[in-house]
């Protein structure tokens, strides 16, 4: 029995990745080192001097899972806008796929799965670096890997669906600046959302990244509880909505 | 009677919003045939090919491909097609051979088997020496040949080529034609679209001429010319518009039929040389003069009043 079409799309992405992954490894390691070094230890030292802990945690332990989830979101956003435009318009490799037994919805689903897997790989490296730096107090930290991948899936599902509706990449930069960056800053990544003004705090609950950060933080600090299933449900809900949209936008784009 | 039709379409229609791109066309392609859609830009050729290739859905009419119904057996049909779309869809960052391997995987073919077949296919399209080069360094003609090789990886029963040589220089075109001719000679069923009348004449056993979503004529290249044009065409060019106008008024009795274009006058004639002799008799002295055989271009001009590359 041959692999289902979705997996052949994932295989294509992995095949392309195989040709350039060595070049990305350095950035995968450097990124957490820089962020954890500057924020976790640099800024963290200041915070410890002045106030002590954040939410009962040394700052580096607080910020590491936040950065991990945020990195997954960033990776997903980067892989879901321009690369989708390349597949539909610039290089048109998605058009090659739909001329074979692969259907547009397989192309969509396969690329979202691949983007999530790749963000998951990034999360593994991040977790290893953070653990080596002493920022991961609990063995439950490994659960942060699928949590980060799920966070990535939520963003990949929605942003890929959107990217397929566009004829040019003009709006992608706007999305990064006005959508992704504010989420990055205000989703409990660097400080608890309880610090936000009341209105913004409610908005933070709507941020998929916040749910991802909460999941990752509960994992790395070993405080996972049954109520965290809510975060999984919200992220899965976003993935589902993205999927319902993306299967349509990919069909409209690839099979008009 | 219905046996062996590779493509059977009646009243096939494609609509984009309220614009009708393909308007109730009917075609039938038999196994082993080389069939063409000839028409200018915007005629609806690509839209037709995408319906036949089970990529886009029809809005009206009947269609079977390889005896199956695209609406519910699209994947099964596509598994047996070789599709070369109008624009290249190669993975530029992968090597030539890897492009074939990954494409074969889309069909779920066994990796080792594809690799072996890739070598044969690259041999066939004369790219064996480029197998380990990245695609982004290849010329347009080489990429086109790779597109063809790649589309053959699943040993398709029906090969669909949308404008196989558009944008290529003459030498690259001839290389592609030669490979397609080989496929045709070996019994493949080819369906191609083109707006080059020489391509249609060279490669098609039978073709339809399309214009504005409709089929305006059907037949072999020879029969279309016999039916819709004269044997010869005399092309006259004049020094200026005024001289051309003057000549046209004197030409009424020369040849079977005349077409006045912006930059020249065409005389459709059953005996070009005889009519050239008559020109000076009626007092016409063109700046330049050419006698040639009728082509599909002339058929198109007669049927639509426009030229193919307009
Ligand atoms: N996806 C689409 N949406 C809207 N109009 C389209 C679409 N694809 C093609 N058309 C229109 O349909 C007509 C036929 O196009 P096409 O089939 O590409 O013709 P050809 O291949 O003969 O040049 C053109 O006028 C084109 O603009
Ligand atoms: Mg076209």
List the helices and strands and how they pair.
The complex is a heterodimer of chains A (256) and B (310).
Chain A: H1 5-18, H2 21-50, H3 59-80, H4 82-90, H5 93-98, H6 104-132, H7 144-163, H8 170-186, H9 198-206, H10 208-220, H11 229-254
Helix pairs in contact in A: 1-6, 2-3, 2-6, 3-6, 3-7, 3-10, 6-7, 6-11, 7-10, 7-11, 10-11
Chain B: E1 5-16, E2 19-30, E3 34-38, H1 45-52, E4 60-65, H2 70-78, E5 81-84, H3 96-106, H4 111-124, H5 140-151, E6 158-162, H6 170-185, E7 189-194, H7 197-203, E8 206-211, E9 214-219, H8 221-228, E10 232-237, H9 241-250, E11 257-260, E12 265-269, H10 272-281, E13 288-293, H11 296-304
Parallel strand pairs in B: 3-7, 3-8, 5-6, 6-7
Antiparallel strand pairs in B: 1-2, 1-4, 8-9, 10-12, 10-13, 11-12
The structure holds adenosine-5'-diphosphate and magnesium ion (MG).
Adenosine-5'-diphosphate (ADP) binds at residues 16, 21, 39, 41-47 of chain B.
Describe the structure.
The complex is a heterodimer of chains A (256) and B (310). Chain A is mostly helical. Chain A has one domain (5-254). Chain A has helices spanning 5-18, 21-50, 59-80, 82-90, 93-98, 104-132, 144-163, 170-186, 198-206, 208-220, 229-254. In chain A, α1 (5-18) crosses α6, α3 packs across α10 (208-220) and α6 (104-132) crosses α11. Chain A is globular. Chain B has 310 residues and is of the alpha/beta class. Chain B has two domains: 5-226, P-loop containing nucleotide triphosphate hydrolases (Rossmann fold, 3-Layer(aba) Sandwich), CATH 3.40.50; 230-293, UreE, C-terminal domain (Alpha-Beta Plaits, 2-Layer Sandwich), CATH 3.30.70. Chain B has helices at 45-52, 70-78, 96-106, 111-124, 140-151, 170-185, 197-203, 221-228, 241-250, 272-281, 296-304; strands at residues 5-16, 19-30, 34-38, 60-65, 81-84, 158-162, 189-194, 206-211, 214-219, 232-237, 257-260, 265-269, 288-293. In chain B, α3 (96-106) packs parallel to α5, α5 (140-151) runs parallel beside α6 and α8 packs across α11 (296-304). The two termini of chain B are 40 Å apart. At the A-B interface, α1 and α5 of A face α2 and α3 of B. The site of magnesium ion has 5 residues of chain B, from α1.
